[in-house]
Write a structure and sequence with these properties.
It comes from Caldimonas brevitalea. By secondary structure, the chain is mainly alpha-helical. The protein has helices at about 20-40, 45-65, 75-85, 90-105, 110-120, 125-135, 140-160, 160-165, 175-180, 185-190, 195-215, 215-220, 225-245, 260-270. The chain folds into two domains: about 15-105, no CATH class; about 105-304, Farnesyl Diphosphate Synthase (Orthogonal Bundle).
Length: about 300
Amino acid sequence: MSVNHYENFPVASALCPPRLRPAVKAIYWYARTADDLADEGPQNAAQRLADLAAYRGELLATCNGLAPGARWRAVFEPLQHAQREFGLPVELLEDLLSAFEQDVVKHRYLSREELLDYCRRSANPVGRLLLHLCDVHDETSQAQSDAICTALQLINFWQDLSIDTARDRLYIPLDACREHQVPVGALMAQQETPGTRGLVRALVQWARELMLSGAPLTRRLPGRMGWELRLVVQGGLRILEKIERLDYDTLHQRPVLSARDAPTLLWRAWRHTPAASPATTPSPVSAPVSDSAPAPAASDDHPT
């Protein structure tokens, strides 16, 4: 399974410890359903926001011990069980909702900082919730988790550029478009300009740097969850490789993982060696998630 906003982030796989699988699935269906309320079907923006407000009300009610209502009982009964067993932080679940609400009304991002704030609520809560299930709460682990989750979200954006622009959504920061002299109108019309591929190249490098800065977390998580996260990291890096092999033309093509990638991902997860980054010049969008985020991984996170 995968959460739509970060499709390269598998959850509840065979590697997930059995004791945690019901809780992980509950978090998945909670996010999946909210995402559908924001994106799927013929509803207008006002109706989507009303549905998400009702969904938020159901979250708060069930977290306060009330029985789930009929409309979303299949979502909130297992989530309520998970919340009772593990004490899931309600604010993280609410952060996800705020991102879905934002998707209804905001389709452009002025700067990297605006986009990172969105990722803080759309992606990072998933990683922090999984850390909570593993009883991992230290600041270093949380910062590295945030870096991985933000990288996965960004990778999904660069992977889905052809899909998002067709839906009148653009997650590339407008200041990056100006830096690379790429007109927004051309992107939205899916018309390539001289700077388009250089822009995507810089965005790919930004996502890779973030992913590598969080990669040491895979050695800190215990047992199966550490292996799960290794595959998550490798899956994201593999998508970046595929974007590079398309010569950064995701405005017209969407790279995906397939069964043929499995041996490579498993080998790299076992060796714990992310793919090498091609030489690129520093970009204005290449920056850590925050000043407190860890530096890129040490040499044992790079190919041998």
